[in-house]
Design brief:
Layout: H1 2-16, E1 20-21, E2 27-28, E3 30-31, E4 35-39, E5 45-48, E6 51-52, E7 60-64, E8 72-78, E9 84-92, E10 98-101, H2 106-109, H3 113-130, E11 150-153, E12 158-161, E13 164-168, E14 172-175, E15 181-183, E16 188-196, E17 200-208, E18 211-221, E19 228-229, E20 234-238, E21 249-255, E22 258-260
Parallel strand pairs: 3-9, 10-12
Antiparallel strand pairs: 1-2, 4-7, 5-6, 5-8, 8-9, 11-14, 12-13, 14-21, 15-20, 16-17, 16-19, 17-18, 18-20, 18-21, 21-22
The structure holds zinc ion.
């Protein structure tokens, strides 16, 4: 009888709540592309991939797992009181698919020589703001959708543009229609607003500790560079500027240079 009651409890728990918290307060199971907030005692140090992870004064930290992250994440915590603990956390794979995109104007598939320089500068500008290592702690907030609509492109899809294979899709595409309002899914600071050749009207928001988000192909930007935004504040409108075959928001998340899947925190693949 005891066994039956335990079984029922397990079924109820898994149906109500698909994740559990580990000893570091991180939501498990971990998934490729996700980012995870943990907490340690004040004064403890966290090492991930041989590098020290930034910790807030009250003990919070975040790690991000890239799109092809291996099956186990190893985290080392060195305790202020002495000694250390190793955590070996399972990472679930993301299921990636292949998309074919045809009908793009050839100049975007193989950009002419004269725009190569501009594309390189655009990329360098985004790289620079992704590297920002601020003390903001908005990454701890519960994320909301920046806009709701049909998912027109999944994270990590391998795209074939006009028959030529390209690098994996680094964001989630949402297509609610031209002009739909985009809001900040987390609070933060707008670190970049720029008109880019490939991604059109582009914005980057810093959420702290290396977590940033990118919004591309916007019709217009509402928030300004340097502006502090709260979760839910309007930041722009959906459009099809840059390399886009129809109006959609390309929404990307990063942990420093690592590309993350914005959908993981919202419970979608
Ligand atoms: Zn996209």
């Amino acid at each position: 009888m005891k066994y039956i009651i335990i079984s029922i409890l397990i079924v109820l728990t898994t149906s109500v709540c698909a994740w559990a918290e580990n000893a570091l307060g991180m939501k498990e199971p971990l998934k490729q592309g996700g980012f995870y907030v943990g907490k340690v005692a004040v004064g403890d140090k966290v090492t991930f991939h041989g590098e020290r992870v930034k910790i807030s004064p009250d003990g919070y930290f975040v790690i991000g797992l890239g799109w092809k992250y291996k099956s186990v994440a190893n985290i080392r915590v060195d305790h202020k009181a002495g000694g250390h603990t190793m955590y070996h956390l399972d990472v679930l794979p993301h299921d990636y698919d292949v998309e074919e995109v045809t009908g793009l104007p050839p100049k975007y598939v193989a950009p002419p020589k004269e725009v190569q320089e501009r594309i390189a500068k655009d990329a360098a500008d985004v790289r620079a703001v992704r590297a920002i290592d601020s003390d903001l702690q908005n990454f701890r907030e519960e994320m909301i959708w920046p806009v709701k609509g049909r998912i027109s492109g999944r994270f990590g899809s391998h795209r074939i543009l006009n028959g030529e294979p390209r690098s994996p899709h680094t964001g989630l595409d949402i297509a609610p229609g031209q002009g739909a309002l985009i809001v900040a899914p987390l609070g933060g600071k707008v670190t970049l607003v720029s008109d880019q050749y490939l991604t059109g009207n582009t914005m980057v928001i810093d959420h702290g500790h290396g977590i940033s988000s990118v919004y591309a192909h916007m019709e217009s930007a509402i928030a300004k560079e340097g502006q502090i935004v709260s979760k839910g504040d309007p930041i722009g409108t959906v459009g099809m500027s840059g390399r886009a075959t129809g109006p959609h928001l390309h929404w990307g998340m990063n942990w420093y240079g690592e590309r993350l899947n914005a959908g993981v925190a919202l419970g979608i693949e």
